[in-house]
Write a structure and sequence with these properties.
Length: 142
């Protein structure tokens, strides 16, 4: 099984960025956690990060026929991007949405997620562990 893990804008700045909300671990540590969990489940996971909406749309389109599942933290695009939702709907790859913080208990504008309209599950408020939960869910281990 091959899983594509997509991270949206500003997640490259993990550790530096509002650590009281997003934690002190950096993006490299997140990559290491994902690699460890994927290896434990016996699956392959590729990490991808972009600050650009169109680049994320391209990546989702390119995933067609190559990946069995997607884990996506669309970051700020969660709340704005119909284009990312449409790309996911087009390729029909099983997808789990992840947020480090609990978007339901923050500002009003974070409570709506376009990606949730397609994702089979949304995990939020568990920090890096949310990615582990998503991978385990997709490989049927949770
Ligand atoms: C986030 C939540 C979003 O509202 C925010 O714009 C992010 C990160 C999270 O992981 O908690 O960039 O997706």
């Amino acid at each position: 099984m091959k899983i594509l893990v997509i991270n949206g804008p500003n997640l490259n700045l993990l550790g530096l960025r509002e650590p009281e909300i997003y934690g002190r671990g950096d993006y490299k540590a997140l990559c290491a956690k994902v690699a460890e969990v994927a290896a434990g489940c016996g699956v392959e996971a590729d990490m991808f990060q972009s600050n650009h909406e169109g680049v994320i749309v391209d990546k989702i389109q390119e995933a067609y026929g190559k990946y069995d599942a997607i884990v996506i933290n669309p970051a700020a695009y969660t709340h704005t991007s119909v284009a990312i939702l449409d790309a996911l709907k087009a390729v029909q790859i099983p997808t789990v949405e992840v947020h480090l913080s609990d978007i339901n208990t923050r500002e009003e504008f974070r409570k709506h997620s376009y990606v949730s309209l397609y994702a089979q599950r949304t995990i939020c408020g568990h920090g890096f562990e949310g990615y582990a939960m998503a991978i385990r869910h997709l490989c049927g281990k949770e």
